[in-house]
Amino acid sequence: MIVVDVSIVAVAVPAMVRGLDAGLTSVVWVTSAYLLAYAVPMLFTSRLGDRHGPRRVFLAGLVVFTGASLGSALSGDIGTLIAARAVQGFGAALLTPQTLSLITHLYPGGERGRAMGVLGGVSGLATVTGPLLGGVLVDGLGWQGIFYVNVLVGAATLALSLRVIPDVRPDPTHRFDIPGILLSGTGLFLIVFGIQNGRTHDWGRLIGPVTVFQTIAAGLLLLAVFVVSQGRARAEPLVPLDLFKDRGFRSGTLVTAVLGFAMTGMFLPLVVHLQSALGLTPTQAGLLTAPMALVPAVMAPFTGRLSDRVSAKYLLIAGLSGMASGLVLVALRTGPGTPPWQLLPGLLLTGLGMGLVLVPVNNVAMRTVRAELRGAASGVFFTGRQLGSVLGSAAVGVLLQARIAARVADAANTAAQRLPARYRADFATSLRGTAETSQAGGGRIRLPDSLPARLLPQAQDLAARAVQAGLARAAADTLVLVIAVLLLGVPATVGVPVPGRRPVLVDPDTA
């Protein structure tokens, strides 16, 4: 449900822009608010599982997530939808850490990779289902359909969970680090809020005299204070810093943050290119991207078992490099008028790379974590991925808007040269003014009133071509950021043990 809800919304972005009469900046917050409310409380919600039991917290999260899905579907304006998505994100934050915690409790070390493989396979299938199911639902029921389906799935999942999830008994002695919760949550919120709203406020004043950069700096300062406080905490810290002495956990958390950035960040430019520049329907766009996600779903059980037997270091390196290489191929073929099928080789290579990372990174991070730290480790691990996803959504959204403005302006100036000289400036200015709505397929291109009727057909054709070219080139430009982050993530694998140098471990549960 959670993985589907990230990718499925990306497919519905153009329909939301049209249906809610909103700009792309506002609609990007539909994803960012969800991811922000997902990432910020996860350190705290992971410890809730330690205190009250993962099953109980899982069920509570499922109820919140399902109810907020209904609220999202019934939203009549963009503000209400963003608020409902934030509540939905909190439900996801309650759910997610409990999955790894339950798996590590229930499966000994030698079988854990297989269990992680099943989890990875389900996640891969969810990634397939998101774009494809989203396209079908948007075409048939409108954007609200993507949230109504959660209500049905959520109700069925709740009934099954009550029957089959075991009640792992909690440790009632666990305490909550309230100052740590406030410091980490506020710091993360300020950083992402500043990044998300930077371009909208021209990187100047954000609220009153407070600037965007001051907001981001304040967030970084609070996170620094949080880290210092965790090292000095006399009671139980929210994030035991001893976790980061484990090389596998440290490397796995860094890699999963990079993976979260890439998997979230690549969808928005792809959707804008496929639906707005190439004119595909949501269903067609979902079908085109489905093979990219099907590959890791098929690979997951095999890479899970393999990560139990050999070092995952080379799997992670090959996976991150494969994803970057695949997106390079996609970016090279992302141009106006390029047949959609020419994107398939790059998309398949991207999916192959994902398949080599998705499951092994889970096993790498959790394999050697001590039993008493598993709840905290699960929270930190998933917080790393969701923080990467939040930053990916915000940074890619900001960059995409900036590149659309620049590319549409360039294309408009070029197209204007085919009109009589006295109409060129008004034509180019009009196209630049409609970039915000046209960039997501949400608005009709407006032409200047000064154009005579005899030039309107030619001008409309020139405008449509200019906007499509600008969107396609902007999408390719934006993918470069995702590629760079993937390549920068390769050094994060340096701490993963390699064959011949792994320590002999005794699983605490079976010793």
UniProtKB/TrEMBL annotation:
Gene Ontology MF: a single term: transmembrane transporter activity
Subcellular locations according to the entry: Cell membrane
Main location: membrane
Domain of life: Bacteria
Record's GO cellular component terms: plasma membrane
Residues annotated as domain Major facilitator superfamily (MFS) profile: 1-493
Keywords, alphabetical: Antibiotic resistance, Cell membrane, Membrane, Transmembrane, Transmembrane helix, Transport
Membrane topology of this protein: Multi-pass membrane protein
Annotated PANTHER family: EXPORT PROTEIN, MAJOR FACILITATOR SUPERFAMILY MULTIDRUG TRANSPORTER MFSC
Protein name: Multidrug transporter
